[in-house]
Structures are given as structure tokens and as C-alpha cells.
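Final report, section 2: Outcomes. Of the targets proposed, Potassium channel domain-containing protein is the one most frequently requested by collaborating groups, and we therefore present its record in full.
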Amino acid sequence: MVLRLDSVWRFCRVRAFLILVLSYVLFLIFGGIVFMVLEKPEEVALVAEVQQLRFEFLDRHRCVKESHLDDLLKKTLFAEERGVAVVEAESEEYSYDFSSSLFFITTFLTTIGYGSSMPISDDGKLFLVTYSLLGIPMTLLLLSCVIHLLLPCLTHGPVRCMQTRWGLSHGRAALLHAGLLLALTATLFFLLPAAVLCHLVPGWTFLESFYFCYISLSTIGLGDYLPGGTRSLATWPGLEFAISCYLLLGLTVLLVVLETFWELPQAQALIRFFSGPWESQLDGLAFDELTLNGEFLPPLNLREEPQYLCPISTISPTIPDTPHLSSTQSPPPPDP
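The predicted structure is given below as C-alpha cells.
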């Protein structure tokens, strides 16, 4: 039985990367099937409802041609997909004033891209292409510099403090700090903003607000939920500016959290395992020097970490003071 388990372990270790790829493909297929099962009935019901409303409208207004109604609906949907409010055009709400344009540029450069607004003119499309060639690298550079400045204060410093005060090893201290940082980030940048949006945006539940925060900070940006859908001229510009600041700050903190988890010895060991034993050493460490139990020697970072060893007097017997004898000298003869 032990030999069989050992052979299975060696097989998984050699083919770990292929197993990871196959598992990811199966995970994608599983997600697609579950999402289809959950959403397909809603889609069918929504299509049936729209078709019924269209039929009733044509039946009550026989003077309206079906082709004209279809043209109107297509044009309206085309405008709505580009963030132009044509259904309530008399309210003088525009999607491309300064605050809305600034909000769009922020989501564009951070690659969130809600998709609720998009350029209408060819000049606008050409500008965005050329603008992004410089803007996106500048955004990534700025975020990288900020993360580089924040990591010593938010990650390396607290880990050393845990080591010196609590006597933890580097692996355990880093893992504990990463968990605390993740919990704090989830509270300050997901739960609290969701509670605020739930009260500010009419009709939004806490789940919808939390979903918006997660979709935004994860840069998925589906755009199915946006506070602008129920905006008013009095509050929407300020809310747009606040959300823009929230996105920049939240992305920075979230990247710090990801970098903190990336530096975990456990994460490095896991990556090294799935990379395969044939790969070269990772960060100057051999594979046998990395384990997944939290004890890692030496630490992955280049800075020297404090070591916590017992005093030499506790593990070695007390050596009496004796004169130093060279190899050529013989000990004195014993007393008669």
C-alpha cells in the first residue's frame, strides 16, 4: 500500500503541470455548465416577456408598422449600449460631460472597461487607441511604483514585527500577516463600500452593491450594474468622482495584497511544484528546500531575516577553562 501511494505521488509530481492544465479546463467546463443551467431559464422567460409586450403593443396600435417599431428598438438599443440615454433624453442627461468622460477614462486606463460607455465617433476611437498606448503603461508603472513603496510598510515590516515579538518563523509570520491583510482589505474595500452604495443608489441591494465592488476591483468590469443607471444630475458627478478614487485606491491595495500572497513561501512552493521538477531552481532555492508546511529555509527574500535559535549554553555542555594546547604539545604527566 505504501509503495502504491509512493508511485502515485511520483506520477503526480512528474505530471503536475499537465494535471493542473486539465483541472483548469474541467473547471472552465464545470463553470460554463452551471452558469448555463442557472441563466438559461431566465433568458427564455425574458425573451418571452419582451415578445409578448411587443405583440400587445402592435395589437393596440395597429397604425404602427412592425418594421418601424423594430427599427426604433434597434436604434434605441444601439444607443443604450454605447451609454447614450435616449429613452429619457428630455432630462438633459449626457454620458459624455466632463465627469462622465473622466470616469470613463479611469475605467479605461485601469482596464476595468464596464462597456456601458464607448466612443461613438471614429475620431474618439482613434484617440483611445493612441491614448491607451501611453496611458495603460503609465498606469501600470504608477501602480508598480506605489506597490514597491507600500510593500515595506504594509507587508515586510509587519512580518518582521511578528517574528521579533512572537518568535514566529518567516513562513508562519508571512502566512498569518497575509490572512489578516486579506480580512482587513475585504472589510474596508468590499463590505463597507457595498453598504454605502446600498444606501446611496436607489433600488440596489447589498448583494448587488457587493457584486459591483467585486466586479470593479477584480477588473472584470461586466458593466451590468452601474450606479449611473439611476443617476440624478445633483448627485451623479460627485458619485462618479468618488467611484474613480475608490477604483484607483482599491486597485492599489488589492495589488499589494496579491503581491503579499505571491511572496508567501507556501505560494512559491506550490508554483514550484506545478512547474515540474525538471525546471531550474526558483529564486535560488532547490525544490527539496521548499515544503508546504510553513517551515522554509532559507527565506525567499534577499534580506537577512532574524533567526531564533537557542543560546549555545542550553545545547552544549559547559566547557571548563583549560589552557590551549597545540597539536605538538602533550598533556602534563599526572601527579604521582
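The CA atoms of residues 135 and 141 lie 10 Å apart.
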